[in-house]
Write a structure and sequence with these properties.
heterodimer; A: 207 residues; alpha/beta; 7-stranded mixed beta sheet; 9 helices; 7 strands; globular; B: 476 residues; 5-stranded parallel beta sheet; 15 helices; 19 strands; binds iron/sulfur cluster
Chain lengths: 207, 476
């Protein structure tokens, strides 16, 4: 199964400067009862995005004028901490994001994001601070993400080098998926299984 | 580059030993390693899209006998004979049942004597054993690390990978030694150890690492306390955390339904004795503290790293040098409606929740029952006790713990995740304060607008009977 290969991406950013944004904020647990991925775009950041009466919170970044259609989220340190719910990257992508820039990411979120083609772009803390300052000074300025060269280019002509896991990067650039790769290693799995007997059999019903 | 020294002669941590034992294929050309998975735990919330993925590709589950499912997150903890009122939850439960049937996976569902929180039933059934690799689409999978297993949470795409191949693409993690020596004082528990660690390293402090908890305080704690500690490894950013197996571990596993028996048991124990970290092995990072210096801990903010001793005063954001930390603390205190400088002790509370995969096992319930016996839940406080599994519930009822809780005025409920995640209707109302034995105090985690103080079962009981955040040492 394949996805659209990733080409260079240019967009103005949506800035949310809070640090430690956890997956319960990205997509609250009450929306995890879904058995598919429907409705996630509206539920993204639900508890920050809407006021008690259900109207959009005008102070929240996603609701500010001109944000719709942007595809890069700029967020505080340690983005995506908390649960393993893949609904978090799904919801971000459903809204339209293709990349998140932060100074660090929680491990499971980073994995989940990469597996869906959502780019977690890690930059040094001082560069993150500069990006927030730029986003405040010139809210509509675009950044360009070049995954091939692993460069984030800013409108002032400067650029920031980032690093994405080499394997995940290849997969995203080519639009291939990891399960296909894993399945191609089946002979290795078989060889492993021939020397590693199952430790348990869950099917034998315990007394 | 591969390490030039063969694994057997190099001093290794338990983490590296388990990794090496499960290597299906070492990564080449920049690809991650492929590791084999011994046990895959599945629940209703993070699996439906993975099964759909299998169907789309025409794949089967490679190893149904190494896979087991339960229902825990979205099911009610009220009368199980009634149909599930929440239609969306009912559909998710039905989907889990269908998927288990279609793909031949054993399901401990509603009505099963083995139903329960996924991280409670694995150990209870003896499925969780030392030296294993264990995964689940759930970030608290590290719980199983208490047995000396490498256990970690995965996303739904990875759930699909494991269902299809019983293996995973993974990069070798860095190792992080957490050494806790000394002795806990009465009223201070395993939960306080992990909350103390998190308050020291912060919520992202161990990203990219796996913890090994060691030291005399850890070996002195029973298996269920070790599970409490390992459970919250992810709250420090570590995907896994483990404790090397010892006699305490073997004794706990022995005789459980899926534990090896007879000669197989002897062989297993012999193999498990080789797991502990070699004396000269090096960790990428280390931290150490003394259990004797700890007091009961409680969180004051909106992530599990924002914790302190229950006798401390609320910190002042203006004293923080780092701007983003200052902003986070300001936002957290605003959400919690707490003021810098005020004591946390004595804050009025509305709800007490004893439960979750952190603290819902029989020993948690025994400790809580011992403290609440002969006391009453304070007027105006709602207390829920939610056993981690149907088996824990049965045992607690047999031992008379359930009636102790009921007589004290607490609700005694069916097993599940309940108010830990508030997906099933068990939830706080906006503005309410809870003292909770669960693992997360994120905004809205226990219900939109709800405010959570994480603490041990003893602190939860002391608070329930006082109606305010209370120090359990005062009523021991
Ligand atoms: S009890 Fe809470 S943390 Fe544990 S598995 Fe359930 S929802 Fe997750």
């Amino acid at each position: 199964m394949s996805r659209e290969p990733f080409v260079t991406l240019s967009s103005a950013v949506v800035p949310i400067s809070r640090g430690d944004i956890d997956t319960d904020q990205i997509i609250p647990a009450r929306f995890l009862k879904t058995v598919n991925r429907a409705g996630l775009a509206e539920q993204l950041f639900c508890d920050w995005r809407y006021l008690a009466d259900g109207s959009p919170n005008p102070d929240f970044a996603l609701n500010r004028p001109g944000m719709a259609g942007r595809s890069v989220l700029l967020a505080g340190d340690n983005f995506g901490c908390g649960s393993s719910r893949e609904h978090a990257p799904w919801a971000l992508m459903a809204w339209g994001f293709r990349a998140v820039i932060s100074s660090s990411f929680a491990d499971i979120f980073r994995n989940n994001a990469l597996k869906n083609g959502l780019l977690p772009i890690e930059v040094p803390p001082e560069e993150l601070a500069r990006l927030f300052a730029l986003a405040e000074a010139e809210p509509d300025a675009s950044v360009t993400i070049d995954l091939e060269t692993q460069e984030l280019r800013l409108h002032d002509g400067s650029s920031i080098v980032f690093h994405v896991d080499a394997f995940a990067r290849r997969m995203i650039l080519d639009g291939t998926d990891e399960l296909g790769y894993l399945l191609s290693l089946e002979p290795r799995v078989e060889a492993y299984e021939s020397t590693h007997a199952p430790r348990v059999d869950t099917r034998h019903t315990p007394a | 580059m591969k390490n030039p020294v063969p694994p057997s002669s190099r001093a290794r941590t338990i983490i590296e030993k388990i990794w090496d034992d499960h290597l299906v294929a070492a990564g080449v050309d920049g690809a991650p390693d492929v590791i084999g998975i011994d046990l895959h735990l599945v629940h209703e919330v993070t699996s439906p899209q993975a099964f759909d993925g299998l169907r789309d590709r025409g794949l089967r589950v490679r190893r149904p006998g190494q896979t087991v499912a339960t229902l825990d997150h979205s099911i009610p903890t009220t009368d199980r004979d009634l149909p599930i009122a929440d239609e969306i939850a009912a559909k998710q439960v039905a989907r889990m049942e269908e998927n288990a049937r279609e793909f031949g996976i054993p399901l401990h569902g509603i009505g099963s004597p083995h139903q329960g929180i996924v991280h409670v039933i694995g150990p209870e059934l003896g499925l969780t054993q030392p030296g294993m690799t264990i995964v689940c689409g759930d970030s608290h999978t590290a719980t199983h690390g208490a047995f000396g297993a490498l256990a970690f949470g995965i996303g739904t795409t990875e759930v699909e990978h494991v269902l299809a191949t019983q293996s995973l693409l993974q990069r070798r993690p860095k190792t992080f030694e957490v050494r806790v020596d000394g002795r806990l004082h009465p009223g201070v528990t395993a939960k306080d150890i992990i909350l103390a660690l998190l308050s020291r390293i912060g919520i992202g402090g161990a990203n990219g690492h796996v913890f090994e908890y060691r030291g005399s305080a850890i070996s002195g704690i029973g298996m269920e306390g070790r599970m409490t500690i390992c459970n919250m490894s992810i709250e420090g950013g570590a995907r896994a955390g483990l404790v090397a197996p010892d006699e305490v571990t073997f004794e706990y596993v022995a005789g459980r339904p899926h534990a090896p028996a007879g000669a197989a048991w002897d062989a297993a124990v012999e193999a498990w004795r080789h797991l502990p970290t070699d004396e000269d092995a090096e960790f990428d990072r280390s931290i150490a503290f003394d259990a004797g210096e700890l007091s009961p801990m409680v969180t004051y903010g909106t992530n599990p790293g924002m914790g302190f001793s229950i006798t401390d005063r609320v910190p002042d954001p203006e004293r923080l040098a780092d701007a983003s930390q200052r902003d986070s603390l300001r936002a957290a205190l605003a959400y919690m409606a707490l003021n810098p400088g005020e004591p946390i002790l004595g804050r009025p509370i509305d709800v007490v929740f004893i439960g979750s995969c952190t603290n819902s096992r029989i020993s948690d319930l025994r400790e809580a029952a011992r403290l609440i016996r002969g006391r009453r839940v304070a007027d105006g406080v709602r207390m829920l006790v939610v056993p981690g599994s149907t088996e824990v519930k049965r045992q607690a009822e047999t031992e008379g713990l359930a009636s102790i809780f009921r007589e004290a005025g607490a609700e005694w409920r069916e097993a599940g995740c309940s108010m830990c995640i508030a997906m099933n209707g068990d939830q706080l109302s906006p503005g309410q304060y809870s003292v909770s034995t669960s693992n997360r105090n994120f905004e809205g985690r226990q219900g939109k607008g709800g405010r959570t103080f994480l603490a041990s079962p003893l602190t939860a009981v002391a608070s329930a009977v006082t109606g305010r955040l209370a120090d359990p040492r005062a009523i021991l």
